[in-house]
Each structure stands twice: as C-alpha cells, then as structure tokens.
Write a structure and sequence with these properties.
Elements (H helix, E strand, L loop, with lengths): L1 H12 L8 H9 L4 E4 L6 H11 L3 E5 L3 H13 L4 E4 L5 H12 L5 E4 L1 H4 L2 H8 L3 E6 L21 H5 L5 E5 L4 H10 L6 E4 L7 E7 L3 H10 L5 E5 L3 H13 L4 E4 L5 H13 L4 E4 L12 E6 L6 H8 L9 E7 L1 H13 L4 H18 L5 H8 L12 H5 L3 E3 L1 H13 L6 H9 L4 H4 L17 H13 L3 E3 L7 E3 L4 H4 L6 E3 L14 H4 L11 H18 L3 H4 L2 H10 L4 H4 L7 H15 L5 H16 L4 H8 L3 H13 L5 H4 L4 H12 L8 H4 L9 H16 L1
Length: 712
C-alpha cells in the first residue's frame, strides 16, 4: 500500500517522499481505518486524505468550513489533473444538478462540502447511493464548544459513524489542546480512530513580541524591510482595521481591509485579490483567516493582543505555510489587556466558560512577558516539550534582561491600595510621579505617602511595571466597579516582604533589522534570494503570474515559492531534471516544464525580455509578423506571442497591430471566449477548438485584448 501511495505522491503531487507521520496516516486511512490527525499548518494535512482518496475506489467527501478553502483546494487539485469539485451555495440549481450527474457517472473523485450541507437528509440519501471512498473532516477543532472557531453544524457530523459504518473517516486539525482532542473524539464518534499527534512546532516562523510604543511607527519599521511580500496585519476592531489599512496605503504599502462589517462583495473581492496578487497586505479582524491557503504569506503582524494562545498560534500559523522563513510580530500594551478583559466580562456564557476564557487570556499574557524561549513556552501550552531553546525567537536571539523590581512593584501596588482600588494606570502613575494636578488634588491624593515616591522613574517605566503586574496576576481590573486596577490575593506575599520579584527589563529595539525580527533575527522572505539571484527569481515569478492569469488560478497553484526556489538553486537543464524538483508532478511537468526551463536557461530571462519589449512593440507596429519578429530578435515565437499578449493587455498595442487575422477567424475565437457568463475562461478551456488551426499564442493575444476591454 505504501509503495502505491509513494507512486501517487510522485506522479500526481511531484514529491519524492512523505514528511513526518504522513506515510503512516495514509496507510491507515487507505486500508479502511479511522484517524485523528493533529498536524501544524503547513505540515501537509491535505495530502493525508487526498492520497488515500486516490488509492481507494469511489468518491472521497471532504468536509470544509469555508467556501474559499474549498475553492482553493479544488483549483489546486484540478491543476494536478485530479477531478475535484465543491458543492456550495455559490452554484446555481442547474449547476448543482449537473454536478450530481457527473458524480453519479463517477467523473468526480473528490467532493468538497460544508458541514451543514452534508448533514441534510437529501444529501445523505444521495451519498448512500454511491460508493464512498472516505470522509475527511477538515478543521475538526470546529466541533469544540470551548474552541475559538466553534461551528455548531460540526456537532451533527457524528452521525456519519452510524450511517456509513464501513467508510473510513479522518478528522484533521492544526490547533487542538488535550481537552479539544477529547471533544473531537467524543462528538465525532472516533473512539476507534488511531491518533497521529505531530509536533506543534513551526520552526520556520520567527516570533517577536514588543511592548507598544507608537505602534503605527513600529509597524512601519517592521514592514519597511518586507516590501513586496504578502502579509496579514490583525487588529481587534473593525474601525482600527479600516484606519490601519488607510494609513498603510498613505505610506505606500498596498493594503486591503477585511472584516465582517464590510459588504460581502467587497470582502470576497479583497480576499480574491489577496490570494491572486503578489505582495498585498491584508489588514483584518479575526474574521479573516480560516480557509486562507496562500502558502507564501511571509509575515503575520498583530497590532492588538489575541484572546488566547490557540488564536495566536492559528493566526501566526498562516505565515510560511510553504516551509520557507516567515515572521510573526506583535505589539501589545496594557490597554489591550483591559479591553479583552472587558469584552470577556460582557460576553455571553456561564461563569465556567468565562473562567476557561480567562485562563486562556492569562496564558497569552504569560507568553508576552516570557523571559524564556518563546517557542518553549508556546509549545509547552500545547503539552509539548522542547528540550532546548529554539534559537529562533526574539528572546533567544536578543537575550532577555531582568531586574529586581521588588520595591518598585510594592510602591505600584501600594498606590493602587491607598487610592481606593478604583483608578486607572494614568492616575496611579501621576500619583507616583508626584504630579500636582487637579485630578490628583481633587481626591486629596497629593497627601498620600506614595505621592512622588516614584520620581526616579519615567512614566513609560511605571506603565511597563503596571502592565507586567497585571500580566503576572498581581493586580487585576475591577470590571464590576470603576474599571480601575485592584489588588489580587496573590500580591500579599510580595507586599508583606516574603518574596522578591524579577521583572522583564524593556530594552529599546535597535534600529537594525535584527531589532524588528528580520535578517539576522528572522530570515524574512526578503532574504530568501541572494542579490545575484534576484533577476532570475523575478523572471520565474513573472512567468508564474502570467500562467496563473491564463489559467484563472492563484500563482501558488501553478507552483509555490518553495518549488520556484528549488528550481532557482538546482538549475534543471532538461525535462528529466525538472521532474526531480519537489512539487513538479507529471501534469505540471507536461504543462509548464518547458516554459520554466526556458527562463532558467536564460533564453527567456527577464532582463532581455525587458530590453526587447520596446523593440518588439515597434516591430509589430511596423507590420512585422510574429515569425519575422522572432527571427529579428533571436528569440522563440512562443516568447514573442507572450510579449505581444502582455503589450496588448497593457494597451501598448492593439490586436490589429499585433496580429493579421482573417475577420471570420477572429470572430470565431472571440465568440469562444465570450460563450459563457462572467469572467473570461482560461486559454486551456478553448484551446481544443483551434488545435492545428492557429498557434496557441494567438489565443493568448485575443484573450488579452478582450480582458483589457472588460477592464476599461
């Protein structure tokens, strides 16, 4: 069985070997057994059900929570030559009927469904009439009422065990602590499932957490070294999302907004742009993320504190899914803590649920103030032991300084107590600094023993002390009273002088790249290629983008960055060597191998293309045919057609200037592209009608002309 699986892995997906537990999981499911798979984002979860689906007879049914995720995986599979489809609300009734006919005929191998559609009686009845290869339940943590992505529809998926007792089921998730794992097993009736628990570690992600100090300026410094890379910036509120996106655009960064308050068509358009275009920044609330399969997100920045380590892990995990370096950067302050505690207090749910959520927030705060390796602390939360510090987080790279804060902490706590445990940090700091203001004099706080005792420290130092006292649980927010700080029971030993307190010393981050979690501090995407490789790297990306537009798929569906990088480094010289590149399967080799070999061989490298583009346009305007232009410029006809299509799309050339086509043939080609509704189909869809009649390049030129008309 494993031998067949490896053949499928190489022939279809283009990979030489399985990673980690993939082989064992695939053997288990392919042979008819159930499995619970815990694997980090980017660890290759999809292969764990896609390979068994191709090995087993019948239709594989994949349960997925979001249409975006379904569409993305279907597009990827279709590019690999696998017959896949998603049945969702975007399809018309007629399209749904057509799909049902194709499924009954056995023309579809993998069907993606939302959970609420799968459990409808009509759908279950339909599936009972088919041979089902397996059920894959993706994002299985959505079944947990304690989780951060709870979806009530997932609770009904347990009935698959009773209705299809002989069909193997595989439940997969990237984020599930011990409690959530048990809930998945219970609710989905996976008691006999073999458990495959991979490491939570994402070694390619560099973690950096900084105290807020002019956060927009801090964000700009971070982004400045990552221009041209795709990334996500998370904010807590919709208003802040819009403000930060507008601010970034004003600073010259291509940023889009995403939150639940936007019209659905704007959200859909922005998400599509983020997936399909290179180098965009999505500024978003947590409404954006699950189902984002874009592998080359090079950074995830948090402008506010996430409410739990599960949320933080999942959100930062959207960076570097391709296994290449990515950065997770966060700025947080005491105000974040106060806001989240207030939100928790006002949320629905019983006291038990609120206590659990409070525990999760406390764990998140502990990571922020951690003096050990961040990765050790993060993995420890998920019951995983990392014996040695990772060497790849801010604490490991920069070192952490602590100081004996026993006396200042007592002064800070004393100020809370003596002012009546009802004032916020701003007022407490004013008292400690001895500020003679009306707000301080009003309640007579200038007469307190703590008035002015902290003059030897700055306002920001006192704010840092209070932030860390709240994070350590020594002080808390009085959410039922005035919203000020109050003492916690745990601070008594410190006030009595029974214990000492070490706090983290905040050191101003250096202005160098290391200070923001870059180059030496994080190997960001901007450092993926050396200066001498950049020209050819851009050539590969240009070709990929062109092919993606032609096939109407995101660029990473053609090849992810990791595959392009391997091409760049291994320099395959022929098709046999190209077939050895990881991620180049048989279908993609046939479709794209020659084109990428030409770029790698220099015959279509970007610099010559850029140099000859102007000359090519002049020659076309002068009436030369593509064959004559190719001869004149000493390049291939295929390359000439490619450049002509680009020039037409950019409206630098008209179709009539580029090509001399009979009117009836031109009309026939245009009709073929305009036959359907909505967006123009890719060239591949109309190509068969004209095989042997016109060169493929002509089709690209006509499509480019039509596309430019649509965009006017």
């Amino acid at each position: 069985m494993l031998e067949q699986a490896q053949r499928v892995l190489k022939d279809i997906f283009g990979y030489d070997s399985f990673r980690g537990r993939q082989g064992a999981i695939i053997e288990r499911v392919a042979s008819g057994g159930d499995a619970l798979v815990l694997m980090p984002t980017g660890g290759g979860k999809s292969l764990c059900f896609q390979v068994p689906a191709l090995l087993r007879e019948g239709l594989a049914v994949v349960v997925s929570p979001l249409i975006a995720l379904m569409d993305d995986q279907v597009a990827t599979l279709e590019e690999l030559g696998v017959a896949a489809a998603s049945l969702n609300s975007t399809l018309s009734a007629e399209a749904q009927r057509d799909l049902a006919v194709r499924i009954r005929r056995g023309e579809i191998k993998m069907l993606y469904l939302a959970p609420e559609r799968l459990v409808q009686p009509r759908m279950l009845e339909f599936l009972h009439g088919l041979q089902i290869a397996l059920f894959a339940i993706d994002e299985a943590h959505c079944v947990s009422a304690w989780g951060h992505d709870f979806r009530p529809e997932y609770l009904q998926l347990g009935q698959l065990a009773e209705q299809f007792p002989d069909v193997p089921r595989i439940a997969l998730t990237a984020t599930a602590d011990k409690r959530t794992r048990e809930e998945i097993v219970t609710r989905l009736h996976l008691q006999n499932a073999e458990r495959f628990l991979s490491s939570f570690d994402r070694p390619n992600i560099f973690y950096r957490i900084v105290p807020k100090d002019q956060p927009r300026k801090q964000l700009l410094t971070f982004l400045g070294e990552r221009r041209g890379n795709a990334g996500i910036v998370y904010c807590l509120s919709r208003k802040k999302v819009d403000e930060v996106a507008a601010f970034l655009c004003a600073q010259g960064f291509p940023a889009l907004s995403y939150h639940a308050g936007l019209p659905s068509d704007v959200r859909a358009s922005n998400q599509k742009r983020f997936l399909n275009e290179e180098g965009l920044i999505m500024v978003a609330t947590i409404a954006f993320g699950m189902g984002i399969d874009k592998p080359n997100v090079r950074f995830v920045a948090h402008m506010d504190l996430p409410k739990s380590l599960e949320a933080y892990y999942q959100e930062t995990g959207r960076g570097g899914r391709d296994g290449l370096p990515a950065d997770a950067w966060m700025a947080y302050g005491l105000q974040d803590v106060l806001m989240l505690k207030q939100m928790l207090q006002n949320s629905e749910g019983d006291e038990v649920h609120k206590r659990v959520e409070q525990h999760k927030l406390d764990a998140m705060l502990a990571l922020c103030e951690e003096t050990r390796c961040r990765r050790q602390a993060l993995l420890g939360y998920f019951d995983e032991d990392l014996p040695q510090p990772c060497g790849h987080c801010d604490n490991c790279m920069d070192g952490v300084q602590t100081w004996d804060a026993t006396e200042p902490a007592r002064q800070a706590l004393s100020a809370i107590f003596r002012t009546g445990q009802r004032y916020g940090v701003g007022h407490l700091v004013d008292v400690l600094l001895g500020k003679d203001t009306e707000k301080v004099r009003g309640p007579g706080h200038e007469k307190l023993a703590v008035f002015g005792v902290g003059k030897d420290r700055s306002e920001s130092e006192w704010r840092t002390i209070y932030r860390q006292l709240v994070a350590r649980g020594l002080a808390d927010v009085d959410l039922e009273g005035y919203g000020g700080l109050r003492l916690s029971a745990t601070c008594r030993p410190l006030l009595r002088g029974e214990v000492t307190l070490e706090l983290r010393k905040e050191v101003k981050a250096p202005s160098s790249s290391r200070g923001t979690g870059s180059s030496s501090g994080g190997s960001p995407a901007s450092q993926l290629v050396r200066p001498d490789e950049r020209e050819q790297w851009e050539a590969l990306r240009v070709l990929r983008r062109k092919l993606a537009e032609e096939h109407a798929v995101p660029p990473y569906v053609i090849f992810p960055d990791s595959t392009l990088l391997e091409m760049l480094r291994s320099k395959p010289g022929n098709m046999a060597e190209m077939a050895q590149v990881s991620g180049v399967g048989a279908r993609k080799l046939e479709r794209y191998g020659e084109a990428f070999l030409e770029v790698l061989g220099g015959t279509e490298a970007p610099a010559p293309v850029a140099d000859i583009r102007h000359e090519l346009i002049s020659l076309a305007r002068a009436g030369m045919t593509p064959t004559q232009i190719a001869s004149q410029l000493a390049c291939t006809e295929k390359n000439v057609y490619s450049l002509l299509a680009e020039a037409i799309g950019a409206q630098q050339l008209s179709l009539e200037q580029a090509l001399d086509l009979p009117e009836d043939l031109l009309g026939e080609i245009q009709d073929a592209f305009l036959d359907g509704e909505g967006e123009l189909p890719p060239v591949a869809q109309v190509q068969e009608q004209f095989t042997g009649r016109v060169p493929e390049g002509i089709l690209y030129c006509v499509r480019a002309a039509l596309q430019s008309e649509f965009e006017v």
